[in-house]
Specification:
The protein has 284 residues and is an alpha+beta fold. It folds into two domains: 4-140, N-terminal domain of MutM-like DNA repair proteins (Alpha-Beta Barrel), CATH 3.20.190.10; 154-246, Orthogonal Bundle (Helicase, Ruva Protein, domain 3), CATH 1.10.8. It has six helices and eleven strands. The strands form three sheets. It has a five-stranded antiparallel β-sheet with strand order 2-3-4-8-9, covered by helices on one side. The radius of gyration is 20 Å and the shape is globular. The relative contact order is 0.14.
Amino acid sequence: MPELPEVETVRRGLAEYVGGRTIRSVDVLHERAVRRHVLGAVDFAGRLAGQRIEAVRRRGKYLWLELASGEAVVGHLGMSGQMLVQSPGVPDEKHLRVRLHLDEHPGAPSELRFVDQRTFGGFLLDELVEVDGAMVPSSIAHIARDPMDPAFDLTRVARAMRAKRTEVKRALLDQTLVSGIGNIYADEALWRARIHGSRPTGRLTQKQAELILAEATAVLADALQAGGTSFDALYVNVNGESGFYALNVYGREGRPCKRCGTLIVRERFMNRSSHSCPICQRKR
């Protein structure tokens, strides 16, 4: 599933191409793509027609189009969602689910297309509410600030992490504690911090908890600079381009640790996998 760097890469692309433009009409080609909009596809399309996109924003793994009406089109990429900007003459993608027709703009494509092979992602028209001084869609009001947010308080979050009765990797994946981090970048951050993901949060010192969050912030920034991580053709930016971040530990089972040369191991974790170096990240 795309994590913060991938979603932010998409957000930046959308901000460049669709910010300030008006939605002329909407085609919902698969109703599952708007299933979270309880009033249905017809209502979704009708209420968006004529709306101006004021800005494109993000929190954690969610992004939204902020509309002049004060509402927001919340989008989630799910496992395979893509948001592509295309010209009208470009053939429809095989798994095209929603198409937004935008007003004409010199040198810019006039269609925003949502393509989703597995149909886990989708859109929702939502109201904006104020949470801790920020306006966010009500449906994601429970999502915590992410490490790239200027208002992110690393010291406070580290303290809250230590107060939880769980393992450190589970805490990193808790979107109500810190958002935007998924399985990939949790493994990467813990490898950088030299801490195994099974360490109980209650056994972390404040300094260790702050180190983990600092390394998570750094790895997210590095991955963002590379356009994110692409394991297959499902994650691309708005122009259909892949990301090229070079992972240090995730997905490298049986390959040498880039720091000490010990072979990386993979362990089962919440129906997924965790990757770590048995020397750099000793279990305790």
